[in-house]
Amino acid sequence: MPNPQLTINSRSVSFAPGQTILEVARENGIDIPTLCYLKDCTPTGACRMCMVEVKGARSLLAACATPAAEGMDIQTESPKVIGSRKLNLELLLASGEHNCIVCEANGACQLQALAYKYGVETVRFEGRTTNYPIEDNNPLIVRDFSKCILCGRCVQACNEVQVNKAIGYGYRGAKSKIVTSGDRPYNQSDCVFCGQCVQVCPTGALTEKKAKGMGRAWEMQKVRTTCPYCGVGCQIWLHVKDGRIVKTSAVEDAEPNKGRLCVKGRFGYDFIYSEDRLTTPLIREGEGFREASWDEALDLVASKFKQIIAESGPDALAGVSCARSINEDSYNMQKLFRAVIGTNNIDHCART
Ligand code: SF4
Ligand code: SF4
Ligand code: SF4
Fold it and tell me: I need a labelling partner for 309 at 20 to 30 A (CA). Which of 27, 104, 265, 331 fits?
């Protein structure tokens, strides 16, 4: 049976039953702006940016939460739609404190980008902004409630993507706020500092503390790499300015992590700049160590191995492979011990 059809901006497209208007539009290269939509999560329709005009409907409909239906005639950029989006943006801007010049999100903020796109130059309303203080008492995440548009993406990222269930909506009306259990700071809550909420926040309400003042989005080069911490192999972007990592983010739609990271991959990148890091092999001499070349260190290890095998047999040796190694390295390690050295004494350390 052929797929059902509908019309978007006078273009006829087919869709799979169960898809929303937003999914059909994006699949066909038609941009409908969103602030609250988070792929693969339950649509909330909270931000009202994706409103579209559907012929015959009594009001504008939220594309993210409206199922596509056979024969629908949809306009995504009609004057009525644009008017609604402009008004919505004004209201969002009026409900917070938005000084883009000094905001960490400047250049990467979706609210700013949409205000620019729709030409929102002045805000006609005086909002009742909350005066919750900035939460800055942990080393990793800054929460600035004055820039929060209550889109709920952080809540979905925490509860549906990472399933940490550390945050939710709190209070009512103009006092509404994203809260942890008991409205405690992140560092006294169930938060595990995976930073997923920061990655999905469309504004400057949640930002990486270590990246503060380190560079603007347009100054940074993105370099894709594999997280060095464990064998899972999560795909990450390094945001690099002048050769220095400013922050990391997860690569969306890439296996195996599909846009997720844990606290180590998200925030643990700066160990490479630690002064305590060993960068050359050390050979013990007496009570201390001296620096050596790799060739000298490896020759020494090989000669010691040979000596032990000659004196006590191969079972006198044992290997412990790092659980953070990739599978291929662990395979080579067991091959070295079993096939070359001749012992089954091979294990790996517990993953941390
Ligand atoms: S959150 Fe966005 S709109 Fe608000 S000040 Fe920051 S950059 Fe500007
Ligand atoms: S850092 Fe992770 S656990 Fe903490 S609130 Fe954000 S998403 Fe939830
Ligand atoms: S903190 Fe960010 S992601 Fe969470 S509700 Fe506010 S604006 Fe949305």
Answer: 331
